[in-house]
Each structure stands twice: as structure tokens, then as C-alpha cells.
Specification:
The structure holds 2 protein chains of 2 kinds. Chain A has helices spanning 8-32, 44-56, 58-91, 93-106, 111-122, 126-150, 154-162, 167-204, 211-220, 224-253. By secondary structure, chain A is mainly alpha-helical. Chain B is an alpha/beta fold. In chain B, 31% of the residues lie in helices and 26% in strands. In chain B, helix 5 links the parallel strand 7 and strand 8. The radius of gyration of chain B is 19 Å and the shape is globular. The chains are: A mainly alpha, B alpha/beta.
Chain lengths: 262, 259
Amino acid sequence: MKRLAISKKTKAILGGIAFPIVLTGLWQLFIFAGFSSARFLPPPFKVFQKFVILFSDPAYSQHIAVSLQRVMIGFFIGTLAGFLFGLLMGLSKTAEKIFAPFFHAVRQVPMIGWIPLIIMWFGMNELPRVLIISVAAFYPITLNTFSGVRNVPREYLELASVYGFKGLTLIKKIIIPAALPSIATGISLGLAMSWSVLMVAEIFIQTAFGVGTQIQKGRDRFDIALVIAGIITVGVLGYAMTVLVQKIVQAVERGRVISTEK
Amino acid sequence: MPNNKGTLEIRSLSKSFIVDNNSLQILNDINLTVHSGAFVTIVGSSGCGKTTLLRIMLGLENHYTGEALIDGKQIIGPGSDRGIVFQDHRLLPWLTVGENVAFGLDKLKRKEKKLLVDEHLKLVGLNGFESAYPSQLSGGMAQRVAIARALASKPEILLLDEPLGALDALTRMYMQQELERLWLLEKITMIMVTHDIDEAIYLSDKVVIMSSRPGVIKKIIDVPLSRPRNRASSDFTRIKAEILEEFHLGTEYPFAYAI
């Protein structure tokens, strides 16, 4: 049968875009049926047109580039800090006792709750924008590094002590490799958090550049097509980044299947 | 030249654990000498403290009374004079077979490391597998890698904690032959803990029988049979009956030997 010739990968892609297409169809039907005025819900075609206009202007790519750069810097700082902090709390029960309650209390405050204070302290600058993105990445990476380090199988630690591995050697040879799957999960979650907080950072700490500013601009002008185009851009880019990180994680993981079986 | 290294002596050793503020005696007045190059097995029912005794020899348990000596020196922590094979192969899943064998060879140069890894993989019949990952191996192969890892650091004494316990019956018998071959080849002391009496008789010069609560050595039985041993010979069966007698399984239930 011919249909079997379609590869699994193609099938997955077709499956993935089927639902957005159906949704767009429903959206169009909704408008044809006259349930909504074009002012509140422009037809899909108008949004598509907006995309063409946006992408034909080099300024839009620049907005995207600025947003990506902002996320990358924040995410990098958050990852590094979260990894080190999670490692410290995982290795030392004393450090956990001192820092964990404070950490868990602080992370209950939603990022948007920090915005007024951050603006008052740092003003409408790049620093506070990057700062809240890194803090957003910091939480899940800290938590997952911590649990990864704490859950290193006792058998591996015993093996290390048989061979006399201590301190940095122990961390390098046993603890980090054993905790790596958990750390990788933290990094994926951290990236997703960074990207969602990007919007908060760009809309609430006003700036001239970034995808978020375009959504805000759409709102100011009551240009719903622009707002929707902005939202789609953010969604697609975020998804692309997630997939990219997953691929990197898979590459790191390849060949090593963590087995806890006895 | 005879190699006199790898002599183990345990002198009036006792050990207790504290459980809920009560002292629970695990080992009571253990006296045991294992001569250089001997193969000694320790058998006994669960909870007789045989694994604890092996952990003391390994240097992982340090709180006890009495003495544990290797070549006349007190055991203080683990050392490269002793190797260990656990019941679970305990290979690190993120390292290849070759890297696992090289695990304890940190101080050596790359070239020397590679030489030792090649030599020991060949020894256990797994040359060509150095770049495989543990998840790709069968249970018996994984355990052979674990044995190669333990032997690669050239120990005087190899400690084996039910090393074949997780393998199926046929692989197990095959691995017993392999262990014997390695022991004859390497000429080092081997001390093994096992549940399997046939395995003990097949491999050892001496079978140490322990009984539980508290763990004491009940009897030490010599196995003066020539090698390789025939599991069906009358001498083999006689020694087996003698051991089973110690577990009160000898006369009443001649075919029940599962402990």
C-alpha cells in the first residue's frame, strides 16, 4: 500500500499541524457565520497578511533577535546559578537546612509580583528584564539539580568509596553524571519558564524592542491582528526552542540509559 | 616464586548495630584465617552477617571489636589491595564497558590504562566490547565486566558478594567455571559469599558455614577435591551432605538444599 510509504516523521509533523489547521477552519467558519465583527476577531487571512507585512520589515526580525538574545542571556545566568545552588544544597544537608526554607518561600512569589520592586530599584532597563528571566530559569533548575544530586543511587556512592573517590572527583565522576537526566529536565523546564517570563519582562518593563513590545503596540492601537500575530510568533519560537533543547538533551543522553534496576 | 600476599586474618571480631536504642549483635567472636591464594566461600542463611563480614574485609564497616588484618596490617577503609564484585554488577550506565573497567585506574597514564583494560576484557572473554554500554549487555556479560573492573586494579584479594546470585542457573554454572579459571590464572585470594552450596563446593578450598543471630562461624569444611570438580561425583555429594547436615537439612530432606 502506498500510504505506508509515508515516514513516521512526516506523519508526526502532519499530525502536529492538523489541529492548528482545523482550528483556523473553525475560526473562519465562526466569522462566516457572523458571530463576531472583524474589529474584535479579524479573519485568519488578515492575520496572515499582518505576518507578511511584519516579516517584510527588517525591524520585526530585529524585535525577534532582541527577544531571543534577552532570553538566552537570562537563561544562561539562571542555569549556571541554579545548577551551582542546586548542587550545593544537594551535596550539603547543612546548606539545605539554611537555604531551602527561604528558597521555597521566595519561589512562591509569582514573577509579576516582583515587577514593581524591580522597576523601583533598577528602572526600566535591560538589567531588570534579564534578571527576572534568569530568576524564572533559576527555580526549576535549582530544584531538579537538587533532587538529581540527592537521588544518586546509594550503590554508586558505595562503589566510589571503594575506589576512594572523594570531593571534586566524586562530584565529577559519579554525582553529576548520575544526576544529569534530572538536571536536563530542569534545564528544559527552565527554558520554558524563561520564555514565558520574557513576555512579562517586555510588556511590564517597557522597552522599544522585543516581540512583547509588538503585542503591546497592537493593544495600544487596537490592532487585534497584530496582537494575534505576536502571540503566534511567541508560541512558535518558544516551541522551536523547546524542541532544540530536547534534541540537545537527547544527544547528551544517547547511549546512556540510566537503569536503577538491581 | 610463591606470592605470600593476600592473607586475611579475622581475630575475635564482633559487631553490633544499634536499632531503636537496642544493641543488636550481628557478628560474634569471628575467627578466620584465609591463606594467600586460597578460595574460601562463606555460606549461611539470610541475616547471618556474612555480607557484613565481607564489608568489614572491604573496609566499608569500621565499627567493630577485634581485629581484621591483611598481611598482618589492620584494615583501615577500602584499598587497592582488595577488589569487590557485588551481586548487582554496579556498572555505571553512562560509561562504556572500557571506561567502566578503567574506573579504578585514575592514577595511570592513558596508555597503561588502555593496556590493562584490553588485558582484562580479554581475560573475561569480552574483547571487542569496550565501546558497548552496560545497558546493551546481558546479566552474565555485565557481571564479567564487573569482574574485569575488580581485577584491573590488581588486587591481592578479590571479594565476591553473591556475584552470581542474579543470574539464571545455566549462566551461573558457566560463570562458576569462569571464576575458577580466573582464580587459577591470577593466583590471588578469593573470598566469596554465597547462598548456593553447590557453588561453594565447586569453587572453594574451604567452606565457612555461618549461622545467625548472632552470626557465628559454625563450622569450616575443607574441600580437598581435585579440579576441575565433578558436581555429580560421590565425594562432591558427600561433602554436600556434610554441609547440609549443618543446616539440619541432611537426613530428613535429602533433596532440599535451597537455603
